[in-house]
Amino acid sequence: MSDSQATHETESTGIETSTSSTTTAGETDERIDDSWLEYEFEGEPKLSVQNLDVYYGDEHALKDVSMDIPEQSVTALIGPSGCGKSTFLRSLNRMNDRIKSARVEGTVELDGRDIYQDGTNLVELRKRVGMVFQSPNPFPKSIKDNVSYGPRKHGDINTGLLASLLGKDESDKEAELVERSLTQAALWDEVSDRLDDNALGLSGGQQQRLCIARALATDPEVLLMDEPASALDPIATSKIEDLIEELAEEYTVVVVTHNMQQAARISDQTAVFLTGGELVEYDDTEKIFESPESQRVEDYITGKFG
Ligand SMILES: Nc1ncnc2c1ncn2[C@@H]1O[C@H](COP(=O)(O)OP(=O)(O)OP(=O)(O)O)[C@@H](O)[C@H]1O
């Protein structure tokens, strides 16, 4: 034990834990206490991650991560660059499957069913667990087509004879879907008179809300967002933040952010990953930002490293 080590008692458990001071890089011999990861909430988890390890070739990018994510809330994932936040996010809808060198071990349950079990329909999974990326990436198509692209591709907009027999033609259904999704993404009022214009003519912030509308159009239950506002100016960022909070009334939102003030503003619970791919602490956002258990988390949050 070094002189700089401190002992403290956790409020919630009364368990004594040892912590040590950190270096500027946040390296330390502090051991993760399991009680720092026990986040309790009412109801069943929407997503339950157990003993998740992810490797890229020989690199062990995520180490034995377990956490339950409650539904209809915002969960923020924070931590320094390279600690595995995006890797974790991509594990929740098996986007890591698309990376050749990636290998995943452990389980991720969506409503109690392991998404990694044989026979999982990946198209169906990614419809239920949608994703929005860091840089807005609309298709070079009209605003309308960007929104209806997914449901069309999956055959979810009824077409032809069957639809007209049911009383609605294809274009009515499509118009309804486009309006609903753009309204949910807080973009409808800005684009309703130019739905046939090319999406690439929109501002960055509008393009990002269009990408959110596109993700919502497939009727997901979970929305994964990887730094959705990092490429945007402060006004566009604030619109996305407001939108995320609104979406959480209906959807389960998991968001990676580098911006700690943003995590504090918009999330209900926060998971802190630190260098080496370890989840160090997971709790109510207020608790994480006001009185974290881990010395390393406190150092990270107060800007001492990272
Ligand atoms: N496609 C990939 N192929 C190989 N290694 C990867 C790949 N993606 C990520 N890694 C490695 O896995 C580790 C975790 O990366 P990841 O992108 O998940 O971290 P992050 O916390 O999201 O970082 P950042 O905040 O910089 O986006 C890093 O060491 C990274 O180099």
Q: How does this model look, in words?
A:
- It is a single chain.
- This protein has 306 residues and is α/β, with parallel strands linked by helices.
- Helices cover 32% and strands 25% of the residues.
- The protein has helices spanning 85-91, 122-128, 143-153, 160-165, 170-184, 188-191, 204-216, 234-247, 260-266, 285-290, 295-301; strands at residues 6-9, 16-19, 45-56, 59-70, 74-78, 102-110, 113-114, 129-132, 222-226, 252-256, 269-274, 278-284.
- Helix 8 links the parallel strand 9 (222-226) and strand 10 (252-256).
- Helix 3 (143-153) runs parallel beside helix 7, helix 5 (170-184) crosses helix 7 (204-216) and helix 7 (204-216) runs parallel beside helix 8 (234-247).
- The longest helix is centred in the middle third of the chain and has 15 residues, at 170-184.
- Residues 56, 59, 61, 79, 81-87, 99, 101 line the site of adenosine-5'-triphosphate (ATP).
Give the secondary structure arrangement, pairings included.
Blueprint: E1 6-9, E2 16-19, E3 45-56, E4 59-70, E5 74-78, H1 85-91, E6 102-110, E7 113-114, H2 122-128, E8 129-132, H3 143-153, H4 160-165, H5 170-184, H6 188-191, H7 204-216, E9 222-226, H8 234-247, E10 252-256, H9 260-266, E11 269-274, E12 278-284, H10 285-290, H11 295-301
Parallel strand pairs: 5-10, 5-11, 8-9, 9-10
Antiparallel strand pairs: 1-2, 3-4, 3-6, 6-7, 11-12
Helix pairs in contact: 3-7, 5-7, 7-8
Bound molecules: adenosine-5'-triphosphate.
Keywords: ATP-binding, Cell membrane, Membrane, Nucleotide-binding, Transport
Biased composition (Low complexity): 12-26
Region (Disordered): 1-34
